[in-house]
């Protein structure tokens, strides 16, 4: 396809996504911590660092069903007051040529659907496709593999990175998520003022299990690809779910402005010490009552109040004020002698 034809198709796809009714909202950082109640329940100082958003009952151990974030949380760092779910991802670091590391700062997202505001954190989408069944209390899942080093094992239509050449997040770059020149690898071109990371979860469920040993087998991708609601489901996983998508805007402007800091090779790495092939995201459901089901049924849209479903959108000041202390205390801000892995991290 000629570049002009591809651009026109990508623009049309982006507009189609932006015109679709879906929840799209910001979540500020609840905490940056080395805990993971999904993969490493009960463990303090897990193998790598995560940024966590959502309900403030996030804990070392969150036993399915018994530990319900919707009941135990008193605030959420996400826009909708009814969403006490927890969402988390690995953290991106910049490696200085002197061997020290610093977390890459983050910003809210812009785009065709409008500006989102958060303090660090990420943006969440719930994209329906036809009639969908909301997640049940106790539901959780994982996308990606924190140990994967092979880009060939990653579907670019589900996990991808975009070189954001614009100087700010409000000037949209490219087409729909995980299309065009998006890559599995973390881009490192000097033209990337930001790096947008996208994680798209499976939208088909076996209808029985709230979790599985690998946190993946109870869900599956449909026949569609990208951020379109997921496509028809396979017979093994016949229940259509809302498609969850995470978007993260890593702000790299300060690093591209001073190339004297750069080591040889790609200076950007995730907190596992690996690149884009190991990008991953975790999810624990925690919406109050049937609010998410109503939101899908009533075609609630973006980050706006939706009285038909009882959804109320909080101000950025309100949700950004919901924070918790680290449960694995260690320095995570400023220049670090090493990434927080193994023993407790120390300042550079």
UniProtKB/TrEMBL annotation:
Question: Per UniProt, which keywords does this protein have?
Answer: Signal
* InterPro entries on file: DUF1996 (IPR018535)
Which Pfam families would you find in this protein's record? DUF1996 (PF09362)
Signal peptide boundaries: 1-19
Asked if the keyword Signal belongs to this entry, the reply reads: yes
Segments crossing the lipid bilayer: none
Domain spans labelled DUF1996: 36-287
- Which superkingdom? Eukaryota
Q: PANTHER family per the record?
A: DUF1996 DOMAIN-CONTAINING PROTEIN, PTHR43662
This chain's protein is named DUF1996 domain-containing protein
Task: Write down the species.
Answer: Echria macrotheca
According to the entry, what is the taxonomic lineage of the organism?
Eukaryota, Fungi, Dikarya, Ascomycota, Pezizomycotina
């Amino acid at each position: 396809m000629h570049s002009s034809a591809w651009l026109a198709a990508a623009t049309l796809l982006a507009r189609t996504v932006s015109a679709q009714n879906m929840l799209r909202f910001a979540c500020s950082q609840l905490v940056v911590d080395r805990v993971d109640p999904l993969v490493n329940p009960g463990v303090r100082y897990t193998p790598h660092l995560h940024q966590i958003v959502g309900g403030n009952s996030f804990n070392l151990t969150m036993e399915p069903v018994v530990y319900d974030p919707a009941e135990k949380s008193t605030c959420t760092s996400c826009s909708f007051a009814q969403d006490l779910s927890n969402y988390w991802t690995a953290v991106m670091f910049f490696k200085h040529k002197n061997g020290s590391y610093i977390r890459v700062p983050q910003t809210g997202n812009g785009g065709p659907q409008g500006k989102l505001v958060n303090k660090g954190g990420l943006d969440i989408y719930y994209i329906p496709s036809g009639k969908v069944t909301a997640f049940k209390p106790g539901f959780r899942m994982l996308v990606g593999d924190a140990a994967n080093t092979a880009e060939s094992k990653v579907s670019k239509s589900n996990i991808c990175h975009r070189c954001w050449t614009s100087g700010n997040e409000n000037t949209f770059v490219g087409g729909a998520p995980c299309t065009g020149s998006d890559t599995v690898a973390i881009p490192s071109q000097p033209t990337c003022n930001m790096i947008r990371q996208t994680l798209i979860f499976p939208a088909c469920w076996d209808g029985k299990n709230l979790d599985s040993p690998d946190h993946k087998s109870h869900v599956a991708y449909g026949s569609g690809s990208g951020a379109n609601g997921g496509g028809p489901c396979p017979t093994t996983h016949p229940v259509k779910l809302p498609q969850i998508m995470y978007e993260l805007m890593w702000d790299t402007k300060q690093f591209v402005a001073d190339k004297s800091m750069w080591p040889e090779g790609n200076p950007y790495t995730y907190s596992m010490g690996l690149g884009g092939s190991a990008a991953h995201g975790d999810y624990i459901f925690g919406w109050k009552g049937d609010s998410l089901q109503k939101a899908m049924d009533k075609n609630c849209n973006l980050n706006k109040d939706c009285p038909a479903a009882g959804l109320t959108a909080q101000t950025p000041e309100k949700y950004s004020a919901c924070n918790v202390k680290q449960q694995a205390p260690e320095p995570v801000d400023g220049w670090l002698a090493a990434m927080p892995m193994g023993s407790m991290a120390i300042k550079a």
